[in-house]
């Protein structure tokens, strides 16, 4: 029996990409994935696919995480309908790769509203319940970009640095209260994230052979649901580079040179 069987697992950004894979893998382990995203018609497609393949009915709710009132209302409905939330996966997010000097300020604000404030709002919506119950698991999808920033990802990396900082502080706050906080730091994943982030297609072309498959990342995240860890870093060699960067930033930036300018 899976340790997430019959557990309610709320997943933001579940209309496609990694979020949809996570929902399917949770359902295959007889968990109850709750699908949250802005695109309601896409959520219905994911729900139907999950039911056809697993027989699990995955409830879905339209949610824009950047709107705090919307977050509060949707999570109240989830609690009313399902009574509890065992695991929250903060997966919603987006990026736009461009030089900061050319960045549109509305896009900058939107990235922070979704990637950081939206994640925090969803966490705050479930945390009091988890603390009262004395159990729960919050999984924040961050990025290797939160450990080492590169040209044209300064704003996106800043949001992921913020996610890591928030997660690390929160982990210490709840460490002795039964709630676990896991951060997931993947490298580039082959999803439609890059449709917006890399509109030229140059970055994907340059790093395609190194991109992670969402099915692989999803498998590792679900394993972390069943056996919680502090951090999940993928792939290992990219995380080794991030660790080296913390020790010798100037050396890594110098040696990185051209490879850092893939965008």
TrEMBL record:
Pfam families: adh_short. PANTHER family: DEHYDROGENASE/REDUCTASE SDR FAMILY MEMBER 7B, DEHYDROGENASE_REDUCTASE SDR FAMILY MEMBER 7B. Keywords: Oxidoreductase. InterPro entries: NAD(P)-bd_dom_sf (IPR036291), Sc_DH/Rdtase_CS (IPR020904), SDR_fam (IPR002347). Belongs to the short-chain dehydrogenases/reductases (SDR) family. This is Short-subunit dehydrogenase. It comes from the Bacteria. The keyword Oxidoreductase applies. It comes from Fictibacillus barbaricus. The keyword Oxidoreductase applies.
């Amino acid at each position: 029996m899976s340790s997430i069987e019959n557990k309610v697992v709320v997943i933001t950004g579940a209309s496609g990409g990694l979020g949809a894979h996570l929902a399917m893998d949770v359902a295959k382990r007889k968990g109850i994935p709750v699908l949250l995203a802005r695109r309601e018609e896409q959520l219905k497609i994911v729900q139907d696919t999950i039911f056809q393949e697993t027989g699990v009915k995955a409830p879905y709710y339209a949610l824009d995480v950047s709107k705090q009132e919307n977050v509060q209302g949707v999570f109240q409905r989830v609690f009313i309908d399902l009574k509890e939330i065992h695991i929250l996966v903060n997966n919603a997010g987006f990026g736009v790769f461009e030089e900061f000097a050319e960045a549109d300020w509305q896009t900058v604000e939107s990235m922070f509203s979704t990637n950081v404030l939206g994640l925090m709002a969803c966490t705050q919506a479930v945390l009091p319940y988890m603390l009262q119950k004395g159990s729960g698991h919050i999984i924040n999808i961050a990025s290797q970009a939160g450990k080492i920033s590169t040209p044209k990802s300064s704003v996106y990396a800043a949001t992921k640095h913020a996610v890591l900082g928030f997660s690390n502080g929160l982990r210490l706050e709840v460490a002795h209260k039964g709630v676990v906080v896991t951060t997931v730091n993947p490298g580039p994943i082959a999803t439609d994230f890059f449709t917006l982030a890399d509109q030229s297609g140059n970055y994907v072309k340059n790093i395609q052979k190194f991109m992670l498959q969402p099915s692989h990342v999803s498998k590792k995240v679900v394993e972390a649901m069943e056996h919680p860890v502090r951090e999940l870093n993928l792939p290992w060699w990219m995380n080794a580079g991030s660790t080296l960067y913390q020790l010798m930033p100037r050396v890594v930036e110098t040696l990185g040179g051209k490879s850092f300018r893939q965008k």
